[in-house]
Specification:
binds zinc ion, 4 helices, four-stranded mixed beta sheet, alpha+beta, Arc Repressor Mutant, subunit A
């Protein structure tokens, strides 16, 4: 999981860092830096142990920041199995209301077919769903008229 304590704020663009120095500069552990290295942080080619250029560390943090800002933007939902934001299969989602204003958008992950859920309100539904086709399910069963639970036969006709 992304850890907000990690930051490239103290990384100098023109410096080079080994794993331990990169860890210190970003507030991470060396193990985390190695993990970043496996997940897209570029090291200087042909050097072992790895050396990272400050400019690459900064770029890596920038990319992560961008991903975090819009992981589930309009038309996208988060699949917990794939651990990624996806556009739901068939470009379709269902909206299941669970109150007068709130509900859950449900879509299928296009890769693993897991159900992806996203909280939404009727007011933000359009913004959340983006270009997706939304079907609203069992919308008003609880909002429509409910039978009077304590109808009193003696009161009939006054
Ligand atoms: Zn998935």
């Amino acid at each position: 999981m992304a850890n907000r304590r990690h930051s490239a704020r103290h990384v100098k663009r023109l410096r080079s860092y080994n794993v331990r120095e990169a860890a210190k500069a970003t507030g991470a552990t060396p193990g985390t830096v190695r993990h970043w290295h496996k997940n897209g942080l570029e090291a200087v080619v042909g050097v072992y142990p790895p050396i990272f250029r400050g400019v690459d560390i900064i770029a890596f943090f920038k990319r992560r920041e961008d991903d975090r800002k819009r992981p589930c933007g309009p038309g996208r939902m988060f699949c917990f199995r794939c651990k990624e934001a996806k556009t739901p299969a068939f470009g379709e989602v269902e909206f299941w209301p669970d109150g007068p204003k709130l509900g859950t958008l449900r879509g299928l992950c296009p890769e693993c077919a897991a159900t992806m859920n996203k909280r939404a309100s009727l007011a933000t539904l359009r913004a959340s769903a983006g270009d997706l086709k939304v079907s609203i399910r069992c919308a008003d069963s609880r909002l429509s008229e409910t039978p009077e639970p304590n109808s009193n036969p003696h009161s009939e006709g006054g």
